[in-house]
Amino acid sequence: MILVSCKPQETKKDYLIENEDYLDLTSQYNGESIDYNNSLWYMNELKDVPLPDPHVYVEDNTYYIVGTSDRNVNVVDCYVTTNFVDYVPYYAIYDPALYNGWECNNPEVYAPEIYCFDGMYYMYYSAMDSVGKGTRRCSVVVADNPLGPYEPLVNDEVDGLNNPLFQDDEVCPQRCLDTTIFVDDDGKMYMYFVTRDTDQHIAGVEMFNPYQADWSTYKVLLRPGTVDSESEEILLEWELYRDDKIQINEAPFMIKSNGKYYLTYSANGAWNKHYNVCYAVSESPLGNFVKPYEEGKIWKNLLMGFPGTNDEEALIYKQWSGFASGTGHHCFFYVGDELMVAYHGHQNRNWNSKYYTERFFAFDYVYFDENGVPFINGPTYSIINLPESISGYKNILNDVIITGSNIQNIQNVNDNYIVDCYNLDTKDNEVILGKGESYIEIEFDDFYEIKGILVYNSAYYDSYIVEIEYIDFGNGNIIYYPQFCEDFYVNDETEFVRPLSCFNLEILKTFEAEKVKIGFNLESGGAINEIVILGK
């Protein structure tokens, strides 16, 4: 019998050697964690920034993260980073107790957001009111730098010390929270916020200036379960996840794309696992906003999260429990030219309770489809490349020529869209690998120094692959048989593949390439989602 090795002879270095020339990152998994180079990669481990309801203010490549403080809910804390690895805490950049103003003794400061207008920094927030009706009110405080200290705004027009600045008992008599600001291309400013009557819903007003609202423009924009504010019919029942508390649409944030206004928000309660990020769209800043809806596709308006229904026995995607919980209350921000979403997630990924638990900052990538509709690749719990302005390396699969053999949907290799746990009906977006030998060849627009490779696996248990036969950059720069970390990304008991899980390879040896060929040899075929090559 003649034994033939399926791998090259060790005496011929016509390939890259693991741990010498490259790292197969997920092979570093030790049963609890993965060691990785945090100047190139990040992972939402939910451990560094204990701030629910995060908002990121960006200035001079510095990122100021504020949110509801679990350390002391009666003040505003801020975490500052330049690399999303090292976070410097600044505690109590706003402390209402210092001013003895309209807030009560235990104000519970929620969801602060920082903006800069005309050289002054405005922090919008909500707190409990000891002067009025003992309910939650919204206001704004000011400072001359992002880290404060922030102080009440008092001038000839307003008294933000003794009164919350966004209170109108005729138009909005109930609680107010989650204020966010949007400035349109014409310079007009709008405020979106949450109020309550029979449910907790989202309203909006135009602003006279950063501290005065034009209450004559007040309009209810979104209610939980309805497709738009002009309808009372409940079609989106998943937004009414029942846990004996009030029904909720909250945490608004506005983004404009292709001339349309996307009012993004969170549905359900922040304490339950089915807290998500959703969207509605309008032709104007104050609506009518419409949530995308198609009969039979009840999560069509979902941007990110762990979907659920009110029938636990019929919960289609309950196998995703343990991957993510409570991923919501978000904002969008840029890191260089790349758009990201910040949000919080339950640190306990198996959380299933009517009560709050520890929530930590996380972030992921945001893209737009050909019609300008935003989509989010997240929430992630895998090793992802950091944005180019931080790592120095970009995804070079933009201006490329892609060919292949025994491949279907090859055009989806670099469309940025990754099928995950809430859009599983879009299987056609995956790249289908045929039985036996197949390959994808990508020719770049120039020579690049190669630093990393990510191959996102299928989201389907019956389609994911466990091995790539080779990744060939030419001139002997070949990686043979990188392995998928099933122990980390796959649950055989629930037939679950973690969304956005991938092969992660970091190149240690410096070399340049103008193309790459990725080969597969699969007995039953399979699928992948996306390929990312990091270079410069």
Tell me the layout of helices and strands:
Blueprint: E1 22-24, E2 41-42, E3 55-59, E4 62-68, E5 76-81, E6 88-94, E7 110-117, E8 120-128, E9 136-143, E10 151-152, E11 176-183, E12 189-196, E13 200-209, E14 212-222, E15 249-257, E16 260-267, E17 276-282, E18 302-304, E19 328-335, E20 338-346, E21 359-368, E22 374-377, E23 384-385, H1 388-391, E24 394-395, E25 401-405, E26 407-408, E27 431-433, E28 436-457, E29 470-472, E30 478-480, H2 486-489, E31 490-491, E32 496-497, E33 502-507, E34 512-522, E35 526-535
Antiparallel strand pairs: 1-33, 2-23, 3-4, 4-5, 5-6, 7-8, 8-9, 9-10, 11-12, 12-13, 13-14, 15-16, 16-17, 17-18, 19-20, 20-21, 21-22, 24-35, 25-28, 26-27, 27-35, 28-33, 28-34, 28-35, 29-30, 29-34, 31-32
Task: Give the gist of this structure.
This protein is mostly beta strands and 536 residues long.
Plain-language structure description:
With 536 residues, the chain is an all-beta fold. The chain has two domains: 22-39 and 394-535, Sandwich (Jelly Rolls); 44-381, Glycosyl hydrolase domain, family 43 (Tachylectin-2, Chain A, 5 Propeller), CATH 2.115.10. It is 1% helix and 42% strand. The protein contains two helices and 35 strands. The chain has helices at 388-391, 486-489, and strands at 22-24, 41-42, 55-59, 62-68, 76-81, 88-94, 110-117, 120-128, 136-143, 151-152, 176-183, 189-196, 200-209, 212-222, 249-257, 260-267, 276-282, 302-304, 328-335, 338-346, 359-368, 374-377, 384-385, 394-395, 401-405, 407-408, 431-433, 436-457, 470-472, 478-480, 490-491, 496-497, 502-507, 512-522, 526-535. The strands form eight sheets. Strands 1, 24, 25, 26, 27, 28, 29, 30, 33, 34 and 35 form an eleven-stranded antiparallel β-sheet that branches. Strands 3-4-5-6 form a four-stranded antiparallel β-sheet, with no helix packed on it. A four-stranded antiparallel β-sheet has the order 7-8-9-10, with no helix packed on it. It is globular and about 75 Å long. It starts with 21 loop residues before the first strand and ends with a strand.
